[in-house]
Amino acid sequence: MSVLIIEDLGVERLMPIVAARLSSAVTCGALRLVDLLEWTGVECYGLTRSYLQAIQKLDFPMLKDPRLAVGRNRPSLVLSSRIVPSASTFESIQKWLRQCDSPKPLWIYEDNTPEAQAIGVIHPAETYEEILSIGRDYFGCKAPRKGSIEDSSAIIAKVFKYPHDVIAQHMACLAGNLELLISKSQYRQLEDGVFVGPDVSLASPIVMEPKSGPIVIERNAQVGPFSLLRGPLYLGPKCKVLEHASLKDGVCAGHTTKIGGEVEASIIEPYSNKQHHGFLGHSYVGSWVNLGAGTCTSDLKNTYGLISMDYPSGRIATEMQFLGCFIGDYSKTAINTSIFTGKWIGVCSALYGFVTSNVPSFTNYAKLFGQVATLPTSVMQSTQQRMFSRRAVVQRPCDIELLHSLFELTRSEREALAGLEEA
């Protein structure tokens, strides 16, 4: 029995948050799809974008190269890497694996509309070799249209279609995911709804409010005095919460992060810093990001209306009233940077002043001062090395190569910006 995870073509719509990471490694509700797969104990393979294959091999060894499976018959289950990593998804995966003796393929779709895209299949008809010959467009090539099959035989699962879905799903599944995490791990219960791992340091006084959901604090985390922790909330291993911090209503901070100021309903991936005063709300922050002192995000329009986001594919109505920003890996903000509602920032960019528009990758963005320029990969390579050394992380050849690949892959973003500036 085995599972194949495919980074299907829909992954491109999740830029910039998946530019430098596997889409199955996006945190949502304190969990990632790779975590759920590991819990199943089933052999897993990952068909990912070519420039991330070295990262997958070194950082996610549980996702094996599918070329190693050539010669085997068929995977038991094929899934899109965009499936939401929720407690209900974990239950579904276990159920789907039990259905793998079905005499015919059972297709999984993203919603109930006739135009819905397939995002998985139980007991596929194709072998590993046949799937690899098709590649990342496997679902587009082999799945029947949702409207052509009986509704009773179609399975529905939630997926990320755009970056804003990550925050929407995060808010919907965080409390349930934390309950699942608690059941899978060994924590010490400090009080009702508060669970901590070993060697957690909690200063005094701290206000903890788990009424709306559990508070989970992993090993070696530190929380400074005069802090507010309101659940549902997750602090990863070695997370450091600074004094007077206010973390509330759906915060998830990954391992080795530093958090201060006011944070609400946001995801902060590992190795990022938001340790000074300022507000971060309903936002996604990638890894190796630093938010300078006084950096603030807006997550509510002055009109209190619903927020739309401008993506490369066009303007999308999010149907969300609260939505902040999405920051790709390795980007930085200077002191007192203000990011307007519903904006995305690419990877490896530097921001100054007011951010009133989306920011391409590898961009030095100081539009307020009339300065928007490209950041060369040589600068980002040196910056990466300095950041890594501060956290005792070794800079590998694949990390350097990733920066060069990202620069080329995001060239069109910068060219589009140049075209807008000229217009």
Q: Layout of helices and strands, plus pairs?
A:
Elements: E1 2-6, H1 33-40, E2 43-47, H2 53-59, E3 63-64, E4 77-80, H3 87-98, E5 106-109, E6 118-122, H4 128-134, H5 138-142, E7 155-156, H6 163-184, E8 188-191, E9 194-196, E10 201-202, E11 206-209, E12 215-217, E13 222-223, E14 227-230, E15 233-235, E16 240-241, E17 246-248, E18 251-253, E19 258-259, E20 262-264, E21 267-268, E22 273-274, E23 279-281, E24 284-285, E25 290-291, E26 296-297, E27 307-311, E28 314-320, E29 325-327, E30 332-333, E31 338-339, E32 343-345, E33 350-351, E34 354-355, E35 363-366, E36 371-374, H7 377-390, H8 397-409, H9 411-422
Parallel strand pairs: 1-2, 1-4, 2-3, 5-7, 9-12, 10-13, 11-14, 12-15, 13-16, 14-17, 15-18, 16-19, 17-20, 18-21, 19-22, 20-23, 21-24, 24-29, 25-30, 26-31, 29-32, 30-33, 31-34, 33-35
Antiparallel strand pairs: 4-6, 5-6, 8-9, 27-28, 35-36
Helix pairs in contact: 7-8
Characterise the protein shown here:
A hairpin with an 8-residue loop joins strand 5 (106-109) and strand 6 (118-122). Helix 7 packs antiparallel against helix 8. This protein has two domains: 2-156; 187-422, UDP N-Acetylglucosamine Acyltransferase, domain 1 (3 Solenoid). The protein has 423 residues and is an alpha/beta fold.
